[in-house]
Amino acid sequence: MFAFQNKRDFSKDALIAAIFAVLTLAAFFLDIYPAKQNSEGTKEKARVVAVDNANIFSVGLLKQGDQKLEVEILTGAHKGEIFKAANVLRANMELDKIFAPGDTALVAVPLNADPETDTINAQDHYRADYTIFLCGLFALLLIAFAGMTGFKAVLSVAFCCAVVWKIVVPLCLRGADPILVCLVCVCVLSAAIIFLVAGLNRKGLAAFAGTVLGVLSSCLMAWYFADVFKINGAVMPYSQALLYSGFEDLSIADIYIGAIFLSSSGAVMDLSMDVAAGMSEVSKHSPKISRRALIESGLSIGRSVVGTMATTLLLAYSGGYLTLMMMFAAQGIPPSDFINNPYVASETVKTIIGSFGLVLVAPFTAIAGGFIIKEKYPSN
After folding, report:
1. Highest mean pLDDT among 35-44, 249-258, 348-357
2. Which secondary-structure segment (H or E) carries 289?
3. Is domain 175-376 annotated with CATH 1.20.1640?
4. CATH topology of domain 41-126
């Protein structure tokens, strides 16, 4: 009987995984905002054969000038051909790069380029191979450790990437309301990830209900406090470059608000699943427990987890601005100036609003679980 139950559960999990695999592939093939085709040439992988740094000079800690390269094209129509390439340094440490012989570069090759006469542009180091390797290694480790559950977790990551890249970003570029788009996206992703990993059961339904309520709370608070703090969204990387690229009608303030609860939704899902899973186990092993006692158990589980989860958000956000904090500390800037800095204020809103969502999702999930999970194991 136990073996039959395991076989049935595995078949059910495999069916759900297959459905989400199809949905993920379908999402990647969506074309909501068609990518602009570059009619002037292609981007190819190339190996740096030789470098000439004679025209590079130092400007303090920065470098400026023109690095001359010889590169061998590794992909595309010009595979195997040797081109001269240019790498322009603009004394911008954030964007400048220095190549050495043996490096792999991403180069822009014009149409009908001639290796004898044309100089191509070396745009950056080529990192796609290492990115694919790391993602594949992570997927293998997850599957090896967790089996079918790990495979479903890998599918949930792929589905999340597909939805954000192929649906959320294109819809926002087309002028759709970023807050609504992000809210719907979070609800869809929450349903997909929770039911994919937990299965179609009452535990998953309780976790989903708590997640949606927590995200809605974060959305409302983000909408209100972004205005109170006078944050216009320009603190986000490349926001001004986006406006000047022909998208001046976009509301970067609304994009910032949507990004707040989108970025914290993963932690909210995690906490809601912790509470729902704990309540499910309590109800399973104590079927005579009252609904009130079950809710109190859920609240107790939430209290144990919410403290570390809030700290997780703080560390995740502050880690990205470590150099900013070091600069303030090095210059002896007083706390009042530090707190009122727009970058610090934006991260404060992100962290606190995300933490509010975490604190609220625990009681929301506990109350929802008390009514949803208890029905499966009624008292005698």
Report:
1. 249-258
2. none
3. yes
4. OB fold (Dihydrolipoamide Acetyltransferase, E2P) (2.40.50)
